[in-house]
Amino acid sequence: MKRKEEELRKEFGSRQKERWREKRIVVNFRKAEAALAQLENRDIVDVEKKEEEDEEKEEEEEEEEITEEDLLNILLKLRNEFYYCLFCGCQYETMEALVSNCPGINEDDH
User: Fold this and answer.
1) pLDDT-based confidence at 44, cuts 50/70/90?
2) Helices (H), 40-109
3) What contacts 101, CB < 8 A, 6 or more positions away?
4) Is the pTM of this model over 0.85?
5) How many C-beta neighbours within 10 Å does residue 57 have?
6) How far apart, in whole angstroms, are the C-alpha atoms of residue 60 and residue 76?
């Protein structure tokens, strides 16, 4: 009986960690998307419109899953085209400056 309870607890904890990880991927993807839009000088929508879009995106997220690969692709684009690190929160002047000052591409590196 105790073993079964322990297995269930571990399973639950594992599922919770995976959900948290998936949410972090989506949150970081959205931040990266916004940063990319700004760096590409695209029009920044006003706050109210952005909130409405975010609500719509959350509904769409249930249908369209954002993967770790999607996040990695947008992070690489920010780094390679704009020398920008989402997790450092700054744009470097050169790729050399980015490489020497940024601890890595992933959130865990920071």
Assistant:
1) low
2) 47-63, 68-82, 95-101
3) 88, 92
4) no
5) 14
6) 24
